[in-house]
Amino acid sequence: MDPLLMAFGMVFDPYTLWVMLGASLFGLFVGAVPGLTATMATALLVPVTFFMPPITAIAAIVTATAMAIFSGDVPGCLLRMPGTPASAAYTDEAYAMTRKGQAELALGAGLVFSAIGGLFGTAVLIVSAPMLADFALRFSSFEYFWLVLLGLTCAIVITAERPLKGVVSLLLGLMIACVGLGNPAGFPRFTFGSTELMGGIGMIPMMIGMFAVSEILRYAVDAGGHIKVEMQPIGNVFRGMWELTKKYPVQILRGSALGTLVGALPGAGADIAAWMSYAISKKLSKEPEKFGTGHVEGIVESGSANNSALAGAWIPALVFGIPGDSITAIVIGVLYMKNMNPGPTLFTQNPQNIYAVYLLFIIANIIMVPLGFLCIKAAKRILLVPREILMPIILLFCIVGTFAINNTPFDVGVMLAAGVIAYFLEQNGFPIAPAILGVVLGGMLEENFITSMIKSDGQFIGFFTRPIAATLGALTLAAWFLPPVIRRLRSIAGA
Amino acid sequence: MKLNDAVFGALFVLLGVVVVVHVQRFPSIPGQQVGPALFPGLVSAGIAVCGLLLIVSGLRHRASQPWFVPEPWTRSTRHVIAFLAVIAATVAYIALVDTIGFLIVGTVLLFALFVLFGVRPTLAAIIAVIGTLCIWFAFYKLLRVPLPWGVLTRFAF
User: Fold this and answer.
1) What is the pTM of this model?
2) Which of A89, A272, A359, A417 is the most buried (most CB within 10 A)?
3) How far does the CA of residue A171 sit from the closest CA of chain B (Å)?
């Protein structure tokens, strides 16, 4: 049977469609509540998707995250509190528009251009992923080694304000990945005689801890007065959207393209895409003086950027197993659990699964428009949900959900420890994203490193003898050594 | 709780060195130069080096970065209790759930946290019961996760 037809069959299965609807509402809610992020939505979904068929599980994650990134705009616009970090870049702008009485325009732009950005990112995913996969089929352990190292380097260069702290965070992640039997020699490392540690430290419990429990801790120390919601009824948010599209086509395209690219780079996701896009929009705008006073241009551009980044992040995740952001880091864990191991062979052996992922992205970004509209209409109710009730329920859900993966209380302990450690590291300026990447990619990095070392008889020069490997290696080394050298040269020239 | 970089640096140097020493005892594979010790050895050496760099930077910025800066919330008893309660609740859950059972532990956990976060006790009690039952129904009945019954085993259904 034709794989595309099979993909349609899997996606338009009634069960999957119901799951998508449920995941949409869940994503819209989580995104709209300040303090709950899109990554947290993914982490909370994992225990539930654990019990679903693979495509349905992916459907739940794709729709929930797309919705959450959009609905993060809603409290940003109405309360000046971003619902997810991805909306933080233009929260002030959107709130300024609300005060000028243009809340409809700001929310409409957020919704419509989120959907357009998401579709753009999906188009790039559809075109580029199979080409990359075709290319990647020729990769050996040398290429994979450099590719993973380049991805890890990239995560530090883009995200960390202080690269040293990013490197520490990454190394800690790699160290955690070393625990257990899962290494090329099959030798139990750092298990301290514990049978639970033989299988390694569970990735999913760790991520639920890092992304959900740490947010609960942050709420616990920050809990203060109630949120006041004063808002006028919101009219037709779609009015004026066509005019905006005609007025800002370049901005929409630029935001979507930049967002997809930033999303595809490991370690940087929707939030960084939105910040960069907003800054570029302001820099290249014909009326930069209007930015910050309630001007829709930046919202159009960065609103499309953060949703396109979501799809962009799936490109390296599906083709190489290298996550583009923290959401796809969780997704990769889910794919392994579902025996849909990411890699180029995913495209050749089971193309119907890949087509299904494309379809899911398209559907999610289209149903975002009507469902997002309902979310805006219900905004007041959602924003009034008391977080002092929500947070303990989320904690219990995390505990039970983590337990459900392997039915062991040990994992709940892992979850708690990961949450507390992540909270303290973040408080002290250590970024969390590199640690996650380290955990996810540690096994792959080591395996390809050891295989390559054995193949080249322990000679490091062997890592540069194949042309693609040499190029990737040179790029990686350049990313390590060029920035400090340039800085040094600049300071010499300046002095 | 913010610590000076040098404190973290010292911790990481210690961690790195301990691991580097520990991996020396890993067996080598006959006929191969690379064994299970190589990769963790490199990583932990890296951690130790980064730790040293952190110590240097921490000492250099000693003037602007004190050894220890408590967060503002540590002065508010309510927030300290809330923070510790989240951790204690999870630990208590792990310790007690098998003997006492999910329904009771879950309800007490929710009730305690609700009250600490400022929900009125009667309302807290009602939502704690409903919330626990919902989660129990979803995971135990729908997803067939073996949540323990504990002391209620006789009434299990």
Assistant:
1) 0.89
2) A89
3) 6
